[in-house]
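Design request, tokens follow.
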């Protein structure tokens, strides 16, 4: 059985990655509070790991949003050419 894949919605995917990055912000804040109250280095290392993931999510979101905007411009440009 073949799986059918539709065209990617880069803008929606980019927004999803931005929401994931915001979720990482919340988790980092919670862990930072725990680290400040306990001084446990496990929390510090987890914070650093989550910061890396957050940065990757933000980079991916920026890429997808740019790609989606370009795709939208291309569609709009093609529509204008056909109307002439």
């Amino acid at each position: 059985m073949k799986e059918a894949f539709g065209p990617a919605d880069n803008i929606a995917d980019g927004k999803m990655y931005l929401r994931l990055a915001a979720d990482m912000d919340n988790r980092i804040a919670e862990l930072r509070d725990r680290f400040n109250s306990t001084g446990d280095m496990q929390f510090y290392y987890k914070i650093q790991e989550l910061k890396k993931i957050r940065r990757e999510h933000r980079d991916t979101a920026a890429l997808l949003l740019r790609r989606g905007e370009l795709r939208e411009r291309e569609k709009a440009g093609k529509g204008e050419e056909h109307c002439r």
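Comment from the thread starter after seeing the answer: thanks! The CA atoms of residues 73 and 79 lie 10 Å apart.
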